[in-house]
């Protein structure tokens, strides 16, 4: 299985992937052996590390004020939704896809309402959750993993996107997390390093890079 290792206040060491995919244009960047990926957000050779973290005070620590690591469970008639807000990368797939289900649709309820859409609709949206914050159970069986070939991508203006399984060396997984799919921070500002917390959006990370719409 491929591996990724967050180093102390330094880059991610990636091994076992033949290439990284630039998700903006699908370009494959070869990465033979072990490669060092920037996670301070300031390398001049992104996505690769150029040593800038040694001079810009980058810390790989988590923010003590981050969202708590807590798994919530929402039991519906046909499906149960599991959610850890502390793991969310705020990609918005769930709140955009089914706003009647996700994102506190009921002022008196929690983050999700499992009875506000069909079971299949909810499954389809949860399968798009990149961070692993969401999973679901049907008939008492939890579904977290999706399988598929190993993949690591560089999201434009956002995190490293992992799919298909990768061992994360030396990082404690949050409740409900899976090594099948997850997002790792590359902007340097996540509250939940090494995982992405969505902070890249607020700091306008790498905004000089073209957005997907600009590239069309
Ligand atoms: S890439 Fe840093 S918080 Fe998402």
In short:
The protein is mainly beta.
Count, helices: 4
Main-sheet strand order equals 4-3-10-11-13
Task: Tell me the distance between the termini.
Answer: 35 Å
The amount of helix comes to under 10%
E-strand count: 13
Structural class: mainly beta
Overall residue-averaged pLDDT value: 93
Name the beta content range.
15-25%
Note down, in words, how this protein is organized.
With 216 residues, the protein is mostly beta strands. The protein is 10% helix and 24% strand. The chain is built from 4 helices and 13 strands. It has helices at 93-97, 119-126, 199-202, 212-215, and strands spanning 3-6, 12-15, 19-22, 27-30, 34-37, 71-75, 80-84, 134-138, 141-143, 151-154, 160-163, 167-168, 182-184. A 5-stranded mixed sheet has the order 4-3-10-11-13, with no helix packed on it. Strands 5-2-1-12 form a 4-stranded mixed sheet, with no helix packed on it. Residues 210-216 have low confidence and may be disordered. The protein binds FE2/S2 (inorganic) cluster (FES). FE2/S2 (inorganic) cluster binds at residues 89, 158-159, 185-187, 189-190, 196-200. FE2/S2 (inorganic) cluster (FES) binds at residues 89, 158-159, 185-187, 189-190, 196-200.
SSE diagram, text form:
Blueprint: E1 3-6, E2 12-15, E3 19-22, E4 27-30, E5 34-37, E6 71-75, E7 80-84, H1 93-97, H2 119-126, E8 134-138, E9 141-143, E10 151-154, E11 160-163, E12 167-168, E13 182-184, H3 199-202, H4 212-215
Parallel strand pairs: 1-12, 3-10
Antiparallel strand pairs: 1-2, 2-5, 3-4, 6-7, 7-8, 8-9, 10-11, 11-13
The chain binds FE2/S2 (inorganic) cluster (FES).
FE2/S2 (inorganic) cluster (FES) binds next to helix 3.
